[in-house]
Amino acid sequence: MLNPQLNKHGELQHLLTIDGLPKSIVNHILDTASSFVGVSDRDVKKVPLMRGKSVFNLFFENSTRTRTTFEIASKRLSADVINLNISASSASKGESLLDTIDNLSAMHADMFVVRHAQSGAPYLIAKHLGDSGQSHVHVVNAGDGRHAHPTQGLLDMYTIRHYKKDFTNLTVAIVGDILHSRVARSDIHALTTLGVPEVRAIGPHTLLPGGLEQMGVRVFTDMNEGLKGVDVIIMLRLQNERMSGALLPSAQEFFKSYGLTPERLALAKPDAIVMHPGPMNRGVEIDSAVADGPQAVILPQVTFGIAVRMAVMSILAGNQG
Predict the structure, then answer these.
(1) Cβ atoms 277, 236 nearer than 8 A
(2) Contact 210, 46 (CB under 8 A)
(3) For the chain, N or C: smaller number of CB within 10 Å?
(4) pLDDT in tens, 163-175
């Protein structure tokens, strides 16, 4: 089975998932991203690598933060950016996903950045483009269902590499609603691909999917036990719709057992870093004293996210179908 993300030369053609991506390509993306970060960590360069190219942001699901960082990244690469809020347009008129893609391709799109509530939608689009002779158009998955969020996984890896330099001696804990999290899946695939020796998943039984052990992950339901001696803590957002109901008693109960407080952070290594994909629920998954504290690298993650998305788009734009 050929990897649908790679072209016949083994180069990146689409970014759909980190699962199955060769380590060399993951490192190439991280190295390229570092060339876009300026002297200060808050500074991202502007380069003309995609001048004359058109990037269509197709967001079938809302996400201001992800869409904005893709838009900034496209503009930093000098591309033309078209934002389409699909939920309010063609899809609601009954037009099929692939009809929408065909119409936009006819407008000379070079790249689609796709966020969709259905797992697998970006694959469907990439396959359709290949089958219809438009393999020169690239697809970037900006989050699909519960499946994957590869650019978030890559920016998390960039952040870890920036602060920890090397992956091969780290213990990384991912905490919270792992069951519903496409970020957790992408992070686990990326961490294991890059050779992190110990990846831990921490959460209540109801929010831990089966099969984590087969992915090489150590599972903890006790937060204090799981945080002992870790180098990196990745907190996941607890989505509002899951805070009450069968899976969790309440947001307060969750914070009591799994919220990251200064006391719990003290169980990790003294130089441990705290990450969060955002937006944060303060007082639910993370205490403000931690979120605003010296070990949190949550704002640099956002800046690095722009550089990583620039790297992905510029690499794809340079690789032909």
Answers:
(1) yes
(2) no
(3) N
(4) 999 999 999 999 9
